[in-house]
Design goal:
With 225 residues, the protein is α+β, with helices and mostly antiparallel strands. The chain is built from four helices and seven strands. The protein has one domain. It is 49% helix and 16% strand. The longest helix has 30 residues.
């Protein structure tokens, strides 16, 4: 697989990610959810987050947001170098595809962070008065931005509450509380990164086992009797 093929795959994943995000952003009210194909455990649940994948954050401040966006920018730049280096080394196509998935996912979320605050009129924005991010009412539209460059919030929508129940009352500290698995809400870019990393680790583990088997199967020379 050549470098141009990897770039095409990266572009395709980014395109799918952005089309989903823009559709949800323009057609859902913040906090809206719908069951996909009537399934309660597969929902489109529109939220935004100012942090990393699955809603994790560095800090609740504009500075933290800028730091995170710049980190994403550096990671994407390094990702292109990494992918090109993998192609030069002639690694397997499976490894190249995993690298492309990771790179595309990082680039997809970078686009949100860099530009969504400029192109949409509503979004999760930092309020210095309360020192926290606040949501909004109604549907967003293309228009005057709700924040500046590097300050956009990432759009999330995939929610899989496969298990949604309560802890038994007899469990200390947890009894009666709600338990949901899988609770984080994520997007296509997050899924691309996570799946790419998992498969890449499996490739690495398989490669290490193969090398170990080769070493154990190699006959050793013994001194003649």
């Amino acid at each position: 697989m050549k470098y141009k093929h990897i770039l095409f795959l990266v572009f395709l994943i980014i395109l799918i990610d952005q089309l989903i995000k823009i559709y949800v952003k323009l057609n859902f009210h913040y906090g809206d959810s719908i069951n996909v194909m009537g399934l309660k455990w597969f929902q489109l649940y529109f939220i935004e987050n100012s942090g990393m994948a699955f809603g994790m954050k560095i800090m609740d401040s504009t500075m933290g947001k800028v730091i995170l966006t710049l980190f994403r920018l550096f990671a994407v730049g390094f990702g292109f170098y990494w992918v090109k280096n993998l192609v030069k080394r002639g690694v397997s196509n499976g490894v190249k595809i995993c690298a492309a998935m990771i790179l595309a996912g990082a680039a997809g979320n970078l686009i949100d962070s860099m530009f969504y605050g400029l192109i949409f009129d509503k979004g999760l924005a930092y309020d210095p008065a309360i020192k926290d991010y606040v949501s909004y009412l109604g549907q967003a539209q293309f228009g005057k931005g709700y924040s500046g460059l590097l300050h956009g919030s990432v759009v999330d929508m995939f929610y899989f509450p496969v298990i949604d129940t309560q802890w038994p009352q007899w469990i200390p500290g947890l009894g009666g509380k709600r338990f949901t698995f899988f609770d984080p809400i994520f997007n296509f870019a997050d899924a691309s990164i996570s799946l790419g990393v998992i498969i890449l680790l499996l490739f690495q583990q398989k490669s290490q086992k193969g090398e170990l088997n080769k070493k154990t199967e190699t006959p050793t020379l013994s001194d003649p009797a």
